[in-house]
Structure formats: structure tokens, C-alpha cells
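Hypothesis: this fold can be encoded by more than one sequence.
Test: take the C-alpha cells below, design a sequence, compare later.
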């Protein structure tokens, strides 16, 4: 409780470690995670520090491990996680780790290089196989076509096909054609054809055939679609041009024999080589998988060891060496409550190193601002994160997170008051809470999921409070429940036909025939749910309740400020800041809340109230408050009274006078007193400096730069104006509790009437099917809009009420978080911050 109410007391310590024991001592401190080291070499370049070589070695080992991890992801090899937390290895073990990683990387790169070469050879042979097959089909088709049109054909089976490709012109011999065959990417084929047509001026003949099955790229492993082409030409000049175009378009050309027999023999040879390559490639893949599977068993442990070594050497680089190079000097922040634990860890580290020199831990006196450290558990961590998102508390300042655990879910529930929607949130949050160990072990990723899971206890409390306020509002999915019986009696002995013809219902508390005079035992009467004047009744109630809650919340914030003033012994702030602020807020807005309660109690309808206190004579509290500030009175009709109680005018004048007097009290005395206190302190320091023979101001550098009186006055003036004007704006800001509650209730009712009511109105046999489908639509809209979107809106408004309206009364948030050396983030697979 002490740590969550106020941050832990911190001590700046000086630590002397022997060179041989420093590594193990830092390792033990990292396991505890309660020591924040200061960088004693801020002006030294990172590449000039003593242990930079070791850090680079760790970076290189991390690179090799990430390479192994990437290769495992390619082969879908599961990394074993047994939850082991190995200790940081000794420095001499780094050599063995480096050798192991080097061996694995070289072996894996060699296997990958061999596999890539085999895949490239396999790809070339596969492409050649398709080229031979496509060329063979083309020439067979051409032979069949030529046999139908040519009167003479060569009877020799092995004669050149190209000699008979085109018939001889009259008076000339047969046309002699050459051809080039190859493979090109499918998407480049149109451009390739256009280039051939333009460069060769249409003097080439191109045939193409797409390879149906995609081929595997040997480098990336992705699927590539390719096309086989055959280009016929005449003459060496065209042949040269065609080859250059093929090279420019990144087409692969393959040698293709001109005779059928040679093509068949080459095809058989290619098939045999492909079978041999497939066998070797399978063996290579199996060997690669075995290497990765063996490394996967230790990969997580290796990562933890390397990151721990790196964190230790990074911390050692922040330490200073003495002149003998045998001792390392550190400065660190340590919680006061953990000094004994730190001493034990240092002794344990010294024993592990085998050193006979015990470390020395000295507490130092300093004027530096200590870090802020709050011990949290899994319940309070979420609420503390909400506060730290606004600003880390100043050292030993009152922590709002303790009170936020109650006020945050309550204010959220006031805006999100629906028991049905709260039940949906409760189901989800309870599932996360009950299965948190399994969900943590599953290591589910995703930014949105991490936010929800981290705030599971916040959502749990918000849902419980929402169910409570939903019962108060008697609102469950925009419907009400009649548990105790209504206090209203409308049309006794009414028939069904009467109810069908019944128009709008307006409830009148003054009617003795309708209202029994006994209030509903808990929450709103269910009859209000169907009344026409429901909104007018609930608006008045929720608006006044919002103001009352807001004023109480702000008064509580001002009361917390006195704990800061007392702790820091700031008597001036108690007398000239806390007391005037409390008087100002209570005399104006506290009085406004009292008027609300007075109106509720002394005005009403029925025989228990006299004529002057009937509902028609009830004054507007808002108008009364405005008239009070403007010193104005309104005329009232007989028999109503001008004042709500005797002596009201005198009381209001006194309260206004008190509020006005508080403004100069907050504005002037504190700056004047602060100025004289600092002047007196400066004079005392000058006297001490003169007696010791030092120059004035040298003994204390922080006191040498004093703020001028004008600056102090301006700062206090801004603070006073902000409080006075903020009291008005902040009070009005709490009306969002009423506005969002009204909007949520009305949106829920509209969704019910426009969606669910359609299904319930069906009377046909298909009505049950329609109701099933309509209920699904209604459930999706309810969850997505009313629970998620409206819940997020209410969450953000609640966050603003705490950050601005509540915390501005006592919370500065000018500290910096305690960032100790800890290995916990390494174990949870999070990167250690440098």
C-alpha cells in the first residue's frame, strides 16, 4: 500500500567492484532487477568504451541467431520454449558459443548454397525439358501440315526439318531457316515479341507455349510462370540481333538439335539427370531440416544467454575505471527497502567469480532528482500505466493510481450504464482473467490484443460497475425488469384491446390514481421505460448527479494535494493554496450541490408539501446559481417564495465574498513569501562561503540560479487563473457523464426498435427463422457499436476526466520512471532497451 500510494524511497549509491567480480555482480543484479545504473561516461563515444569489443561480439552472435531463426521460419520448424531461464554465461563461455554459432551458420550457408545450386541446375534442366518437348510438338505439327500441301517431301527420316519448313519459290531452291529456342518470364513475353518485331522488321517467325506448372525460383523460393519460345530467322545478321534481344530481355536460350532423333536422345538424358538431381536435393533438404531441428531445441536459450551477456557488458561500459584498472566504480539508484537484497546479490556474484575482494556499497548524499518507482502487481499495473501515460509522478508525489482503481471504473459505468452490455464485457474480461496463464503461455501477438489483455482487470471492474449502474438505471439492452413491482398503477382492469388502442403514456407523480407514493426499492421504476416523459425525468436526474459526482471528485483531488504539502513540509502551500482552493470550490460549486439536495428534499407534489413547495414553485438550481453570482433576483408569482430557505440571500452573499477573497490570497502571499525565503537562503549561503574562504554560490550550484520575483509571480498568477477558470470549466466538463449516458441509452433503444423489434413482430411460420437472423444482426451491431465503439468513447472521456479535471488539482507528473537493469524483458522475448 505504501508503494502504490507514494513512490518508493530511493538512494543514490556508489559501488566499488573488483575487475574480476564485476561481471558476475552485474549479472546477479540483473536477475533481481532493482538497480538503475547511471552513465558515468556520458562524453565518451560508444566506440571508445572499454567493453565495446565484447558488445560487438554479442551483436555478431545475435545476427547469427536471427539468421538461424529466419531459416527456421522458412521451414516451419517450431522453436522449443520450455520456460527455462538460464543464467548469464561466464565470459570464457562466449568463445564456445561463438564457435557453436559459427559452425551452425557455416554449415547452414553451405547447405543453402548447395541447395541453391542444385535448384538452379534443376530449373535449367526443367526448362530445357519443356523447350525440347515444345519444339518437338511444333515440328511434328509442321510436318503434318507440310504433308498435306507439298507434293514432294524428303523420304529421309533424319533430314533437316528446317530445309522443308517452307516450300521453294518458283525458280529457286528451298528456304534455309535457322531457329533459337529458350524460356522467358511470362510477363515479359509481350514486350519481347514487340521488340523482335520492331528490331527485325517483321522478318522473324515466333512461336510460344506457356509452361502450365509454375517453376520454383532457386533464390527466393517463390513460384515463377514462364513461357517457351521458338524464333525462326534467315541469315547470320538476324541471328545476331535475335540473340542480343534475348539477352536484353533476360531470356534463357537453350541448345536444341534440329533432328527428331537427337531431340529424343537429349530429352532422355535430361530426364535422367533430373531424377538424379531430385534425389540429391531431397537428401540436402533432409540434412538442412535436421540441422535446423537440432538448433531449434536450444535457440531460445541461446538468445537469452547472448542478450544477458550484451546487457551486462553494456552496463559495464557505464562504469568508471580507477587509476589502477583493478576496480570499477558505479553509481546507481536503489530502493531503500532493497539495500539488503542488493548486498546479498553482490556477495553471491563475488563468490561465483572466486574473487577475494568484497564489493563496497556506499550511500551518497545528492541533490539530484531520484527516479520514481511504484511496485505494482498484475491488478494495479494496468491502472498505473494509465497514469504514467499522462506523466510519471514526481518523486514521492501522491500516486493517483490507487484511487483510479475505483473512480475510473465508476465514472465509466455512469456513462456506460447498461447491465446487458456490462455482462458482455464481464464475460470477455472474466475469460481473460481466468485463462491468463494459458494466454500468456500462448504468446498471442497483436497490438490491439496486447492492449486488451494488459487492461483485463480494468475491463473487469468497468463491467462490474456497469452492471451496477445498469441496475440503478433499470436498463438491460434498453429494456427494464420489474423485480419489486411498479409503484405506478395505470388503467386497472384494462383489456388487451384497450392496450392496443393505448396511445402515449405520460407519468404524473402528482396523480394519486397513478402513483402509490411508495418509491421503487432500488433504481428506476420500470414504468419509466415506456413513459413519454422518461427522457425529461432522467435528464434532470442524471445532469444533477453528474454535477454532484464531479464536485466531489474535484474536492477529493484538492484534499489529496494536502498530503503532498505535508510530506514536503510546504506550509506556505497549505495556508495560501490548499485552504483558499477548498473554500473557493466549496463556497461556489459545493453550495450548488447543496441546493440540488435541498430542492430534492423540500419540493415535490402531494399533500405532504405545502403550496409554496409544490413542484410548480420549485426554482431552477442553475438559474439560482447564476443569479447568485450576478447578485440578481427574479420575481416569482404568489404563492411561490423568492428564496428556497430563510436567510438564503445572506448566505449567498457571504459565500460569494469568501470566493472573491480567496482569489488574492491564492495570488499574492505565496510568491512574496517564496521570494523572501530564497533570498534569505541565498544570504545564508553567502555567509557560509565567506567564512570558508570560497566564492559565493560555489558550494551549491542549484541555488546560484534563482528565479526572479516577476517570474515567480507570473507562475503563481497562471496557476491561480487556471484554478479559478478551471473550476467552472471542469464542473461543466463532468456533464459528459450525463450526455454520454443519455446517448448510450437512446442508441441502444433505437437499435432495439429498428432491428430486434422487427423480428419480434413476426407472426408467420417463417417468423422464427427471421427472428434468428435478425437476432444475429442485432447481436453483431450491439457488440460492435454499443459495446466496442461506445465503450471506447466512454473510456476516453473517463480518461480525460482523470487526467485533466481530477489530477490537475494535486498531480504534477514531472518525474522520470525507474529503469533498472533487469532480465525479465529478455525472458519474455522483449528487446532490452539500450
Amino acid at each position: 500500500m505504501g508503494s502504490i500510494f507514494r513512490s518508493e524511497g530511493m538512494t543514490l549509491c556508489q559501488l566499488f567492484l573488483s575487475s574480476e567480480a564485476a561481471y558476475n555482480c552485474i549479472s546477479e543484479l540483473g536477475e533481481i532487477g532493482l538497480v538503475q545504473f547511471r552513465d558515468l561516461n556520458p562524453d565518451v563515444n560508444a566506440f571508445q568504451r572499454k567493453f565495446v569489443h565484447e558488445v560487438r561480439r554479442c551483436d555478431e552472435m545475435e545476427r547469427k541467431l536471427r539468421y538461424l531463426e529466419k531459416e527456421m521460419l522458412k521451414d516451419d520448424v517450431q522453436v522449443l520454449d520450455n520456460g527455462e531461464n538460464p543464467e548469464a554465461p561466464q565470459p570464457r563461455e562466449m568463445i564456445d558459443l561463438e564457435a557453436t554459432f559459427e559452425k551452425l551458420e557455416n554449415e547452414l550457408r553451405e547447405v543453402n548454397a548447395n541447395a541453391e545450386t542444385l535448384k538452379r541446375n534443376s530449373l535449367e534442366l526443367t526448362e530445357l525439358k519443356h523447350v525440347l518437348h515444345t519444339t518437338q510438338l511444333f515440328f511434328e505439327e509442321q510436318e503434318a501440315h507440310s504433308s498435306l500441301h507439298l507434293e514432294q517431301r524428303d523420304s529421309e527420316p533424319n533430314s533437316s526439318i528446317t530445309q522443308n519448313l517452307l516450300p521453294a519459290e518458283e525458280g529457286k531452291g528451298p528456304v534455309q531457316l535457322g531457329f533459337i529456342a529458350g524460356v522467358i518470364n511470362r510477363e515479359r513475353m509481350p514486350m519481347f515479341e514487340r521488340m523482335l518485331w520492331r528490331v527485325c522488321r517483321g522478318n522473324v517467325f515466333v512461336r510460344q507455349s506457356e509452361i502450365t506448372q509454375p517453376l520454383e525460383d532457386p533464390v527466393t523460393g517463390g513460384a515463377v510462370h514462364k513461357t517457351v519460345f521458338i524464333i525462326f530467322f534467315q541469315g547470320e545478321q538476324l541471328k545476331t540481333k535475335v540473340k542480343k534481344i534475348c539477352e536484353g530481355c533476360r531470356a534463357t536460350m537453350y541448345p536444341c538439335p534440329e533432328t527428331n532423333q537427337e531431340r529424343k536422345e537429349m530429352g532422355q538424358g535430361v530426364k535422367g539427370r533430373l531424377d538424379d538431381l531430385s534425389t540429391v536435393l531431397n537428401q540436402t533438404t533432409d540434412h538442412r531440416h535436421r540441422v535446423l531441428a537440432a538448433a531449434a531445441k536450444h535457440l531460445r536459450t541461446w538468445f537469452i544467454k547472448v542478450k544477458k551477456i550484451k546487457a551486462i557488458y553494456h552496463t559495464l561500459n557505464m562504469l568508471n575505471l580507477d587509476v589502477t584498472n583493478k576496480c570499477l566504480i558505479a553509481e546507481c539508484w536503489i530502493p531503500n527497502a532493497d539495500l539488503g537484497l542488493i548486498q546479498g546479490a553482490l556477495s553471491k556474484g563475488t563468490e561465483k567469480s572466486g574473487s577475494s575482494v568484497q564489493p563496497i556499497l556506499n550511500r551518497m548524499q545528492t541533490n539530484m532528482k531520484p527516479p520514481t518507482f511504484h511496485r505494482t502487481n498484475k491488478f494495479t499495473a494496468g491502472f498505473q500505466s494509465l497514469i504514467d501515460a499522462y506523466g510519471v509522478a514526481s518523486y514521492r508525489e501522491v500516486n493517483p493510481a490507487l484511487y483510479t482503481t475505483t473512480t475510473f471504473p465508476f465514472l465509466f459505468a455512469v456513462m456506460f450504464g447498461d447491465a446487458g452490455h456490462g455482462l458482455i464485457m464481464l464475460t470477455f474480461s472474466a475469460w481473460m482473467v481466468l485463462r491468463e496463464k494459458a494466454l500468456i503461455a500462448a504468446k498471442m501477438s497483436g497490438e490491439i490484443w496486447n492492449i486488451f489483455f494488459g487492461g483485463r482487470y480494468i475491463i473487469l471492474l468497468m463491467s462490474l460497475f456497469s452492471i451496477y449502474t445498469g441496475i440503478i438505471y433499470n436498463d438491460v439492452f434498453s429494456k427494464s425488469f420489474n423485480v419489486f413491482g411498479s409503484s405506478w398503477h395505470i388503467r386497472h382492469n384494462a383489456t388487451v384491446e384497450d392496450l392496443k388502442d393505448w396511445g402515449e403514456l405520460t407519468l404524473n407523480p402528482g396523480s394519486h390514481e397513478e402513483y402509490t407514493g411508495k418509491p421503487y426499492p432500488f433504481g428506476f421504476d420500470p414504468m419509466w421505460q415506456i413513459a413519454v416523459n422518461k427522457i425529461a425525468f432522467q435528464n434532470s436526474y442524471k445532469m444533477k448527479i453528474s454535477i454532484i459526482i464531479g464536485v466531489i471528485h474535484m474536492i477529493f483531488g484538492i484534499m489529496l494535494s494536502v498530503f503532498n504539502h505535508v510530506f514536503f513540509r510546504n506550509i506556505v502551500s497549505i495556508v495560501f493554496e490548499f485552504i483558499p482552493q477548498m473554500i473557493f470550490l466549496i463556497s461556489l460549486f459545493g453550495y450548488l450541490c447543496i441546493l440540488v439536495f435541498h430542492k430534492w428534499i423540500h419540493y415535490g407534489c402531494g399533500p405532504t408539501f405545502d403550496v409554496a413547495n409544490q413542484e410548480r414553485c420549485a426554482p431552477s438550481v442553475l438559474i439560482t446559481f447564476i443569479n447568485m453570482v450576478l447578485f440578481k433576483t427574479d420575481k416569482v408569482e404568489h404563492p411561490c417564495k423568492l428564496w428556497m430557505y430563510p436567510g438564503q440571500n445572506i448566505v449567498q452573499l457571504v459565500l460569494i465574498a469568501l470566493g472573491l477573497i480567496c482569489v488574492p490570497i491564492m495570488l499574492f502571499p505565496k510568491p512574496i513569501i517564496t521570494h523572501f525565503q530564497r533570498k534569505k537562503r541565498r544570504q545564508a549561503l553567502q555567509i557560509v562561503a565567506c567564512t570558508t574562504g570560497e566564492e559565493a554560490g560555489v558550494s551549491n550550484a542549484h541555488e546560484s540560479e534563482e528565479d526572479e520575483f516577476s517570474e515567480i509571480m507570473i507562475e503563481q498568477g497562471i496557476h491561480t487563473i487556471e484554478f479559478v477558470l478551471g473550476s467552472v470549466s471542469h464542473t461543466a466538463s463532468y456533464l459528459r457523464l450525463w450526455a454520454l449516458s443519455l446517448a448510450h441509452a437512446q442508441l441502444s433503444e433505437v437499435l432495439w426498435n429498428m432491428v430486434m423489434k422487427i423480428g419480434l413482430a413476426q407472426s408467420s411460420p417463417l417468423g422464427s427463422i427471421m427472428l434468428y437472423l435478425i437476432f444475429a444482426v442485432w447481436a453483431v451491431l450491439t457488440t460492435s457499436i454499443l459495446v466496442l465503439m461506445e465503450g471506447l468513447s466512454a473510456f476516453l472521456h473517463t480518461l480525460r476526466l482523470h487526467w485533466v479535471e481530477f489530477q490537475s488539482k494535486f498531480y504534477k507528473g514531472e518525474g522520470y520512471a525507474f529503469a533498472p537493469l533487469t532480465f525479465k524483458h529478455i525472458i519474455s522475448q522483449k528487446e532490452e532497451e539500450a
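Residues 150-173, 696-706, 830-834 have pLDDT under 50 and may be disordered. The two ends are 32 Å apart (CA to CA).
Hypothesis status: open.
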